[in-house]
Each structure stands twice: as C-alpha cells, then as structure tokens.
Amino acid sequence: MSLTGKTVIVTGVASGIGKETAAELQRRSATVIGVDRNAAPDVDRFFEADLSDPDSIDRLIDELPAGADGLCNIAGVAPSQPAELVLKVNVLGLQRLTLGVVPKLADGASIVNLASMAGNRWRDNVEQIEDFAPVDWDTVGDFVARHHLDYDARSYFLSKEIVVVWTMQHRWSWRDRGIRMNAVSPGPVDTPILPDFIETLGERAQASIKLMDRFGTPEDVAPVVAYLLSDEAAWFRGANLTPDGGMGAHLALKHYGLQ
User: Fold this and answer.
1) What are 48's strand-pairing partners?
2) Eight-state DSSP code of residue 117
3) Angstrom distance (rounded) from CA 160 to CA 84
4) Strand, coil or helix: what is 75?
5) CATH code for the domain in which residue 51 is found
6) Which is deepest, 8, 87, 204, 237, by most CB within 10 Å?
7) Helix (H, G, I), strand (E, B) or coil at 107
8) Phi-psi region of 36 (alpha: psi -120 to 50; beta: other; left: phi over 0)
9) pLDDT by residue for the chain (259 residues), tens digit each?
10) Does the CA dihedral 74-80-85-86 come out positive or negative?
11) In a domain, 167, yes or no
C-alpha cells in the first residue's frame, strides 16, 4: 500500500502516535507536513501551532500549502488536563483546523481523526453531545461549569465521543469533491499519556484492561491511519476503526450482559 505522490498534514507530530504516523507515511513514500507545539525535525516540512489557540490555528491555516491529499488530526491532550483545555484542543481545535483546511485540500483527499476507545459509549451521551454543538471558544468555559466537568475526567470521554459523532456527521459533507472523513479509536496505547488514560477509565475498566495480552503501541495504530489515507480505503465514509486489542468488544459485551 503505497502513498507515493501524496502529501499529508499530521498534527501532534512531535511524539506518540503522531510521530509514528509521520514515520509510517514516509515509509510509504508520502510527503509529511508536521504540526505541533514542539519541534519535529524528522518531517518534510514543519509548522508550529497551538491547537488551544484559535488565532494560532488561523495563522496555521493561512500558512499551510494548498493541495494536500490528507489531514491526520492526531494532536490531543490527556484526561488529567483541565476540562476546558481538553475540549479546546481535542474538539474545537480539531474542528477549526479541519474546516479551515478543507478548502485547501486536493479533491479526493482523506481526513482521519484520532478518537479513542474512550468515545465508544457516545450513544449513551447524545444529549450532552448535542448540548456541546453550539459551543465555541468563548462559551466552552460556561459548558464546563454547566456540566461540572472540572470535577472528574468526563471531559476526555466527551471529547472523544464528540469526535466520533462529528466524523459520522461529516460522512458526506464534501462528497462532491471526493473528500472523505473517518476516525480511528485506539485502545490503551503505550504513550506518555497512558497512565492518565488508565486512571480515567475507572476501576471497572482498569480491571478489564488486566485481561489484555498487552497494551497497544503507536506502531499498531499508525498503519490503520495510513490505510484510511490510501486509495484502497476510498469507500470508507464516517467509519470508526478500532485497533484496541479487543478491549472495545469486551467492554461493549460486558455493558450489555452478552459476555
């Protein structure tokens, strides 16, 4: 599966899954444009940006070259961070960058959003997801206070639920240009935020994680992202692929009493 001739924008490229995705794309002969707050010397071109700052995002959109064949929204913050920051980076920043970049993407481009197994229970939280829909940079603090999100790690789960739903909502948004959007929802991956992720899942999920044969690695996830960028994945629209070692299936069956 070659990506020869394709140019892909990857956010969160300085570490973890973003860094490995950039390396995987380069191994498949793609040109990688990296975006991060921290320097990433191994990509073909690099742009510094802060996805918690709308002005920084707007400057990035202006600076990015036109004609990219893909956008990988991988940048994110851990559940231990303040709720307002989690929602700004994981949701508002992702959305603002994506909608701003779409006019500059090549026809037939692929957008891949990194969600999480933490977003799998979105069906149980539709009311909260809908309530977030009109939220913007000026009102996100009010939303956090209204839903008491600073008192637990719910903001992280919600951010990933919103990303999964938003991906599905945009399954056909740019169909006239052949631009598609899909998501990838990894399970527990051995990155710097893994301890936060495990703690966030709570005691029941932590007990379930002990049943896994191993944690995932960025090398488990990057090829899935690369696949969604390839021409072979052209008919995936609004899909959510789950490289999670079976944990998502386990928790779903456990939730519905079907083990």
Assistant:
1) 36
2) G
3) 14
4) coil
5) 3.40.50.720
6) 8
7) coil
8) beta
9) 789 999 999 999 999 999 999 999 999 999 999 999 999 989 999 999 999 999 999 999 999 999 999 999 999 999 889 999 999 999 999 999 999 999 999 999 999 999 999 999 999 999 999 999 999 999 999 999 999 998 778 999 999 999 999 999 999 999 999 999 999 999 989 887 788 777 766 675 677 678 888 999 999 999 999 999 999 999 999 999 999 999 889 888 988 999 7
10) positive
11) yes
Count structural domains, the chain.
1
Give the end-to-end CA distance of the chain in Å, rounded to a whole number. Answer: 36
Q: How many CA within 13 A on the CB side of residue 237? A: 13
Domain boundaries, position 167: 7-255
Q: Residue 35: which H helix or E strand, with range? A: strand 31-36
If we measure between CA atoms, which residue out of 212, 213, 239, 214 comes closest to residue 224? 239
Cα dihedral across residues 22, 27, 33, 38: positive or negative: positive
**Residue 85 CB neighbours (<10 A):** 16
Residue with tokens 């995932």: 216
pTM over 0.85: yes
156 is catalytic: yes
- 2 is a domain residue: no
Q: Rounded to the nearest 10 degrees, how much is the dihedral formed by the CA atoms of 231, 3, 177, 63?
A: 160
Measured in whole angstroms, how far is the alpha carbon of residue 227 from the centre of its chain?
15
Question: Does residue 242 sit within a domain?
Answer: yes
Structure tokens at 69: 């064949």
Residue with the two structure tokens 């990506």:
3
Assigned token pair, 89: 């980076």
User: Cα-flanking dihedrals φ and ψ of residue 181, to 5°?
Assistant: -130, 130
Which residues 6+ apart lie within 8 Å of 44 measured at CB? 26, 31, 32, 33, 34
Q: Do residues 3 and 226 touch, judged by C-beta distance below 8 A?
A: yes
